[in-house]
Amino acid sequence: MPEPHVHAATLPRLTTARAPLTREVAVIDEHGEHGTVSIPAERDLTVYVDRRELVTLMTLGAQPELLVLGYLLNQRLIESASDVESITVDWEVGAAAVRTHAGIDRIEERTAKKVVTTGCGQGSVFGDLMAGIDALKLPDTRFTQAQLYALVNAIRLQESTYKSAGSVHGCALFTLEADDGVKMQCFVEDVGRHNAIDTIAGWIAMQPSASLASGRVFYTTGRLTSEMVIKSAQMGVPIVVSRSGITQMGHEVAQRVGLCAIGRATNRRFLCYAGAERLALQPDLAGPLHA
């Protein structure tokens, strides 16, 4: 899908209502010892579009405005960030108020059908999950095994809520650099991987096109379901990498749209499930082959 050119003057106004990502709770361990630990601070956020209630999202609240923007984009309710005038998040009432420039055409009809997906916390997609995927055109991006290893290492070194509190999914957007390098552009954690990828979609929509001109790779700690593959393709990202595996439908969609899907990516190991023509293998980097 060609990415719309967004001028800074047309970008929506966003609040910056970041919420605390963790909270301390009292616990008792297996020895009867008392202590405190950090847990993710899940909270509900009800989204209103032009004063009409649309959906309630369960989220950590790291970047709620970008989450809402990306949600609207990935649900195909808006075409670009420039369709939105403003997004205002107020945690005191747990609400996000979206104001569009011209409304959302046929919003009642387009949100009448809901598909419950395999996303953590029960993700959902309005309308036909597969609608329009054959029209998606992904850039001819290729990357190397060395860049894949650099990406996995960057994730390993990334400070995260998961390391301190667990129970969350992380997603990241990378661009490919010269000399087999990669650059992390955005890292997001949330209670569900669908929220994290929606937040990255919102982040991409707010960037000037030229800033992400080099090849893009999307990383997720969660499995590659059809929803995750479709959303990656909708963001114009032709390569996805997961610490987990892939579902049958995710595999079918990746093959259908020509997306490179890599899973089980830990340390030097990985499995390329689809789109292997995008990956330049360098087997010597993997070390000795074990029986």
Keywords summarizing the entry:
single chain, Cytidine Deaminase, domain 2, alpha/beta, Ubiquitin-like (UB roll), five-stranded mixed beta sheet, six-stranded mixed beta sheet, 7 helices, 22% helix
Q: Could you describe the 3D structure shown?
A:
- There is one protein chain.
- With 291 residues, the protein is of the alpha/beta class.
- It has 2 domains: 8-130, Roll (Ubiquitin-like (UB roll)); 143-286, Cytidine Deaminase, domain 2 (3-Layer(aba) Sandwich).
- Helix content is 22%, strand content 33%.
- The chain contains 7 helices and 17 strands.
- Strands 12-11-13-14-15-16 form a 6-stranded mixed β-sheet. A 5-stranded mixed β-sheet has the order 1-6-7-4-5, covered by helices on one side. It has a two-stranded antiparallel ribbon with strand order 2-3.
- Strand 6 (84-90) and strand 7 (95-100) form a beta hairpin.
- Helix 1 packs across helix 5 and helix 5 runs parallel beside helix 6.
- The termini are far apart.
